[in-house]
Design brief:
The protein has about 150 residues and is of the alpha+beta class. The chain has a single domain, classed as START domain (Alpha-D-Glucose-1,6-Bisphosphate, Chain A, domain 4), CATH 3.30.530.20. The chain is about 25% helix and about 40% strand. It is built from four helices and seven strands; from the N terminus they run E-H-H-E-E-E-E-E-E-H-H. The chain has a seven-stranded antiparallel β-sheet. Strand 6 and strand 7 form a beta hairpin.
Length: about 150
């Protein structure tokens, strides 16, 4: 009997009204990262460094930094520490920052997701957080993430 596991990718492109350098800092500086995603974060911006984001209560994403090319490209593995459909380090997240006029085009790929349902649920999550990233990068405040308060109650 042959068994195959379908691995899929989620892609997004987002125009952000900020320089690549500004967006880069929001991706790699743990204090700045939590302005748009997560309750706490660790990101060691070098190959082999730790990626860890306590996203919402009961959900912590973890991985290892694979590639760092400031302010253009960040790649790290990704998965849920608490288990679930995406094991720690089993998928790969890639951010590519491309200058676009006075702003930045963010090209994002989340590879090796275990199926269509995972692509759909992670797509909803990334869309939620990228809206917040765009606000913060443009100089605004995203405010308290409603997903944190919803899952705290």
């Amino acid at each position: 009997m042959e068994s195959t596991t379908e691995r899929l990718a989620l892609t997004r492109e987002l125009e952000i009204d900020a320089s690549p350098e500004t967006v880069w800092e929001l991706l790699v500086d743990p204090v700045k990262m939590t302005r748009w995603m997560g309750m706490s974060a660790t990101l060691e911006a070098w190959p082999g460094g730790v990626y860890r984001c306590h996203v919402v209560p009961g959900h912590t994403s973890v991985g290892e930094v694979i590639e760092v090319d400031p302010p253009r490209r960040l790649v790290h593995t990704w998965g849920w520490e608490e288990g679930g459909s995406v094991a720690p380090g089993s998928t790969t997240v890639e951010y590519e920052l491309v200058p676009s006029g006075s702003g930045t085009l963010l090209r994002f790929t989340h590879r090796d997701l275990p199926g269509a349902e995972s692509v759909e649920s992670h797509g909803q999550g990334w869309d939620h957080y990228f809206e917040r990233l765009a606000v913060v990068a443009a100089g605004g405040e995203a405010g308290v993430d409603p997903w944190i308060t919803e899952r705290s109650n």
